[in-house]
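Re-running the complex after MR caught last week's input typo. The corrected sequence lines follow. Everything else is unchanged.
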Amino acid sequence: MTDPSSIILLLLMGIPLLFGGVFVFLGQTTLRRFFYVLLAIHSAGLLSLLMLGDHDFSTTLVFFNEAITFSITATPTILFILCLAGLWLLAWQHRLPLAFFPARVHAIFISVALSAGCLAFYSGQFMMRYIALEVVGLLVALTAIVSFANLIPFGVIFLILRLGDLSMLAAILILYQPARTLDINTMITQAAQMPFNSQAWVLAGFLFAVIVKVALFPMGGWLQIARENKQFITIWISAILMPAMGYYLLYRIAPIFQYQSVFQIVTLVLASAMLLAIMLVSYLRVIPFSPFMLLNGVLSAMAILLAAYLIPDLLALYLFIALAARIVLLYQERVQVSLPPLGSALLLLALNTAFLLAGCQQLPMPAIIAWMALTVLASAWLYLMGKRDLTAKTLQQVLVHPEERLPLTLFTYEIAAWLYHQLEIGVFHDGLVKVRDGFLQAADWVYTNIEGGMEKIWTKLGSGLIRISKSALRQEEQVSHKANEGIQTALRSIDKQEIQAAAKEIRWDLIWIPVVLVVILVYLMMG
Amino acid sequence: MEGNIAVILPIAILMGGAFTIYVLTRALRLSNKIEALLAILVLAGALAALLNLVQPLIDLTNINDLFYGIRQPGGILFYPNIVGVYIGGIACFICLFICAYSGEYLSRDPRYLLFYPLILLTIAGLVSMFFAADIFHLFLMAELTTITGSALIAFRFTKEEAVKAGFKYLVMSSLGTMTMMLGIYYIYRGTGSLYLTEIASMTNDFTRIGAACFLVGFSIKAGVVPLHTWVPDVYHHAPSAVSGLFAGITSKSMLFIMPMIILQLGMTAQELGLYLMVFASFNMLVGVIRMLTQQQLRRFLSYSSIAQTGYLMFTLGIGFYYQLPSAYAAGLYLLSIIAFMKCLAFLTAGNYEYRFGTGDINQLMGANRLVPLNAFAFSTALAGLSGIPLLAGFTGKWLIFAAALTAGDAFAIAGLVVFLVCTVIGSIGYLPMLVKQYQRSRANLKSLEKNQLTVTSTLWIGVPVVVLTLIVIVTGVFPTPWINLIENVVRLVAAV
Amino acid sequence: MNTYAYLLSGITLLPVLGVIILILWKKATKTQAAILGIISESCALIIPIILLSELRAGRSVVFSLPWIPNMGISFSLELNWLSLIFLITEVLVTLAAMIYSLGDKDGEKRSHYYYALLLLFSLGMSGTTLADDVFLFYIFWELMLIASCLLIISWGHGENRLRVALKYFIITHIGSLMVLVCLILLYVNFGTASLSALTVQAASLPAQTQVFMIIFFLIGFCIKMAIFPVHLWLPDAHTVAPMPVTIILAAAMLSMGTYGVLRFPVALFSLEAMQPFALWMMIAGLISEVYGALMALAEKDIKRIIAYSSVSQMGYILFGLGSLTHDGMVGSIMHVIYHAIVKALLFMVVGILLAAAHERNIDKIGGLAKKMPVITVCAAIGVLGISGMPPLGIFNSEWMIFAGGFDSGFPIVLTVITLLGSILTVIYSLRFFGKIFFGDTKPEKVDTNISKALLISTVAVTVFLIIEGLTPGPLLTWSELGLVSILGGLP
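Corrected-run output:
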């Protein structure tokens, strides 16, 4: 543990937290200076980690009977350095005027994010990574709170990110079974021996988590909401850091694709579908996606496609480029410079062709075909979209103003209108609201009918029991009443008889007593 | 008359004491309290006489060695037995409290003169029934208890309902004893003898019919459903002390006399057990369901009594049907604790009526503020009856469970299920009754006060209530002595 | 018996002493009665901590006195790792509730009875965890019920509190009776009421009897845990009870059901005998989890929302227990403890909100974050805690429960549904937090003058929650040791 890289890493985790604590007490100007110092330290630390090379070490801290390990390699370091470059860019962009400088809270968020980022990128244990991802997710959600007006932006972001994390948790826990350890490398290699069913669940879980974290359509809603506050520097956490963590997750789980060939085919189809969906959706102007979201979606989908065929170095390189593109796009958006359509299309075409050439020996034919086809399609789409002025005109508006139509459309707009109405129902952004309402409606229905029903049954049982009791008592009372009447009558008649008998002077009705006695006496004497 | 006079001594003390007290009080114009004191002395003497019989019974080798009476046909004969001594002892013990209580309760009633003799005669009749060795004598003593019982019930003869209740009891009980008489006819016809020991060796169809008649007769006296209709009215309108006596000991003891007689008349233990278990379910259900909505304290307790009879019948039924001595022991234990708890309940309910002139719990809400000790005692009795742990009733419940589960087969389990259901429904009844005493009253309770009597204001009421409460609590926390005692009793019974 | 054994008896006897003093001390003010109660309860906390050294040395502490020898019943108490965990949790929650009650408006009248009953309630729970004799166990079990019923009837809110208490009593009593039948069946079969002896011998019962007993034990204890569909008693009882009682009911008493499941069917019979029931337990847990969360979502009364959340969390616990795996069962035990703390915190927050806004309907409260910042932070931590946010406690136990579910051998989809069902917890807790603390400020008049006792207890519990979450190590070790003590080894 005395290795310099371990010390540097632990410092990189601890120092931002320290700074975060200090930020609480500082004034605005001092805050800015300290913030730059923190960024500088962090950057320096990361660069030195890169230069010191790969290193694994474990700490004395224990998580659930397993030592917490760290694994320093080049890929996450480069990713993190890129993220930090993005942060520097944003910070530099904010240098004037002062009003735009991060408020105290946002500075603290970024410090915590830096620390969590270290944990996420370098942790050798899956659970630690999960924890770090959850913490960053919380931070992303917190950046959405701008006022005490409502908590819904926070809620939606938190929910979507949590959903992604839960699917990742499921995958981790399924992997945990055969491996009985949380060490990432062991878990991934052990997964090769798992039955197909389990492997499928694991891959599905991780893929879904990646899709959520890189904000790929259709799970990009959270980033849309977070970007409403894009004027703040904390957009870095949502737009850069979280996707970077998603990219790294993709990189680490990529070996799983290799275990079954069907996984690769399914991923191919899935990635293609997502790409086509993005292109279709933006082409039809169904959702006013920004170029940032669209292009990042395209690049992320292609990264997934590449991951399915696992050429680790190529994949890493592609991820670096995707992340760099993300930073560039973010910056471009903020300085409000639009992309040159032809240039960007040709760049994409060149990039993907280069990657194809570099890895074509290892890629199977279907993959190569798909890659090229999608690349061409994406480049064409990029060009067309660049040509059109990307205002937030909806499909309806274009239908009403035919002069706004794009070239080469033929009858596509009519089809588009039909598709639009279908998609409108399925579009995630609105769909989330519908799902939420659906949940609330389901909850209300269950409450009224099941819970209310059980309560009614209980009350009916109780009142039924009481009714039985009362009717039983009434029955007895009736019987008792009748008996009482009978007794009354009997008593009265006895009284009457008594009075009558008492009125007589000699009680001739009692003559039978001496007669009977005489009879008995006679009988006894004779017997 | 030959035999050991110790056998007849308890009965003689009770009967003789009854007459003596009456004569003395009449002649010397003694007050209620002094007569109560005399009655207590007599009861203490009877208790001592009963305890005196214990050692001879333990040493007994042949049943014919210990007796009293005329050994010739047609003569009266007493054979003591340990169960009779035990239950008689409990009865005398309870009566001590009842007499003490009545020492104050009847102060304003000019007819107190007859009360104590009647109580003593009832107990004498009860003990005699246990010691009866011939069925005619049994019948006579049953008649005695009927008559004294009716007189006691109708004690407040100025109240129309009391007279009606007494009349009802007289009619129904007489029906019972008449049925017994019919039974005697059949038995005599079948065997030519009236002595139980002789009949037991000569059982035939006639004796079995007689057994059935006796079964019906005892069932009426015990209050077995559907012959229970006298119970609510009687316990409601009789003086509280009398209700306590009846509910606590007299009616329930019939369930113990019954097997002693009937099993010697040719009915098998299985048949008796079956009868008891089946009718126990009816008792439990009827008692508990009708108890639910009852707002009148003493009527509530009367239905609770019917249910308790059911519990007792269930336990005894298991004991006979499955030949389990532990169940019989459980039955004896249950009898003892029910006696204490019911007596306490009726005495404290009587206190409420005496003080506030009403037995309606809705009008007695908040009584805790005015009569805290009485409310506590009543709550203890109710809690004990519903089987709350650490009070006497819970150990009884535990023993019933144990008996049923030891038997183990479907029939016993079915009965146990009914028992469980009735316990739960019973709690629905007991809990509100208990709680309402402590709730804030809507009406002004003070305005209902007729006299300022409290548990603490007079020893005559205070001592019985406090002692009974302590017994209920102590028996719950430390039941060991009682259980030891009962186990010894059962061992002696089994030996015979 | 050595001094440790006598100390052990002190856990039950010292509160009794406190109860007796309180009953007799009629003139006590609320504060005086509360302080006496707190002192009594603290003794019940200090003693187990002293006895921890004995446990660490590998010896369990036993106190035994013959009670009813001819029935084979003795007054036996035993402290082992499992009872220790539940005991300490229960005592801590009671202490927190008692400190909270100082600032609460309930219990002003007849305070001495109020605190005496609270002590009895806690005694019932301590006794349940410590009892080594089935007769004694049942007595303490019923004592919990009786004390809480009396508390609800006398100091509860609302006109229908007698009816609610009756419902609570009856439903729980039915469960207790089912447990009693099994206990007596054990007693009758082996002639002894000693739980230690029974634990060794019970596996020799015929298979049919074992099945019957497992079913009855499970149903009886699930009623106490408020699993759907026998959870009916919980929402109403939590709503009408005075706040400290609600806190103890939700946080500590529900865990007694879990303790019962562990101490009886799991400990008495082998895991193989329990295997046929594993799937049912897991499904029941899943249904309960989803149902409770849905109900929390549909509810408008803030107290009831948290009450239903208890139903949901108990579903997790039953799911974990049902998996019959090491991770699942250890996770369940830890979840019990974590849930206790979080639930106590949430109810304390609700109590403060009720005191401040005098309003129970969630639609009529809002925007309180500005007026009550400290409580907002506490509530935020509570909400994050119950949503399973690391590093707060429930995350630790939840992932172990899910791991147990995956390890159980049943279809993966079952655990996946349970896992995804936890998103409902996030939804309703966020709705709860968002509607109350964000949005327009309503009602107009909010009394922000919160009593110190309320504030201190709430903040203390919050801090404890954070610390507990950051250091799961000791609890994990204790839970494993607890499991070892009942199973003889780890599954």
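None of the earlier attempt is carried over here. Residues 1-133 of chain B form one domain. Chain B has a mean pLDDT of 88.
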